[in-house]
Amino acid sequence: MERKLPVRTICSFSIIIGALALGHVLTGCQSASASAPASQQLLGTWTIDGDAMKQSDDYKKASSQEKQMMESMLSMMKMEITFTKTEVKMEMDMMGQKQSETKPYSVKSEAGNTLVLTSKNDAGVNEDVTVIVVGDSLKLKQGEQSFEMKRK
Predict the structure, then answer these.
(1) Most confident of 22-26, 42-46, 94-98
(2) 30, 18, 7, 5: which is closest to 127 by C-alpha?
(3) Of 16-25, 85-94, 132-141, which range is least confident?
(4) Is 89 within 8 Å of 102 (Cβ atoms)?
(5) What is the three-class DSSP state of 129?
(6) Terminal alpha carbon distance of the chain
(7) Which of 3-7, 71-75, 80-84, 109-113 has the weakest average pLDDT?
(8) Does the structure show a pLDDT above 50 at 71?
(9) In three state form, how does the secondary structure of 72-90 look?
(10) At residue 12, does pLDDT exceed 70?
(11) Cβ 111 vs Cβ 37: under 8 Å
């Protein structure tokens, strides 16, 4: 029996706010100025940052077997997230299974380089994700899970 991986947990805004990118929606490849508000720096396309993920506490605490599984999953996964001012678009390909989702989101709060974004999950319930933007690096946090990304 084939088992579905809990990828949606960290990847759609019910995982992360969803949103994948087929192109550069508003900002293209240009990175936002570091002095711009975090909500402005967020705009554009982001992709998985495997190197940063390997520096995370979760990875460092993992057993060698868990690290091997994480690395294997990362190597088989392609994900891009594009944020516009009102929508997040996610495109993911994991082991040949492709998902694409676009959802509206809103900024619930903004403090320095940290945003709390909210969007409705598939059940229509609001879910929040914390986003930390530092230059061309992005960290998505939802509950105990976090995901590292870099500007494409």
Answers:
(1) 42-46
(2) 18
(3) 16-25
(4) yes
(5) strand
(6) 36
(7) 3-7
(8) yes
(9) HHHHHEEEEEEECCCEEEE
(10) no
(11) no
From 100, 137, 115, select the one nearest 18 (Cα to Cα): 100
105-143 per-residue burial string, b: 16 or more CB within 10 A, e: under 16: bebeeeeebebebbbebeeeeebbbbbbbeebebbbbbe
The 8-class DSSP code of residue 33 comes to P
Flag whether pLDDT at 96 surpasses 70.
yes
Q: Please check whether residue 118 is in contact with residue 16, taking contact to mean a CB–CB distance below 8 angstroms.
A: no
* 138 token code pair: 């992005």
* H/E element, 150: strand 145-151
Per-residue confidence (pLDDT) for residue 33, from 0 to 100: 61
CB atoms within 10 A of CB 71: 14
